[in-house]
Amino acid sequence: MDQLGESIRNAYVIIDLYSRKIVGWEVYESESSEQLKRVVKRAIARENMAPKVIHSDNGSPMKGWSLVEYLYELVSIVINSFK
């Protein structure tokens, strides 16, 4: 809950950096690597292609073991930005 008593939502957005097209997005009330993995899988299915490189923020969902393992099976390069 925020200071106004409203629940906070987390948006997962996947953007193709070359075209700037949003290829996947979903909103959840909580944050988890399993949810992010689901968003990635749906984006890949919708676009009918897997990315060659994944560049991400350094958020906690990107550090979940099942997601990390899935991403390394999927692509050759995973880049995390550091703040």
TrEMBL record:
Residues 1-83 form the Integrase catalytic domain. Pfam families: rve (PF00665). It comes from the Bacteria. One of its GO terms (biological process) is DNA integration. GO terms for molecular function: nucleic acid binding. PROSITE patterns: INTEGRASE. Coiled coil: none annotated. InterPro entries: Integrase_cat-core (IPR001584), RNaseH-like_sf (IPR012337), RNaseH_sf (IPR036397). This is Integrase core domain protein. It comes from Acidithrix ferrooxidans.
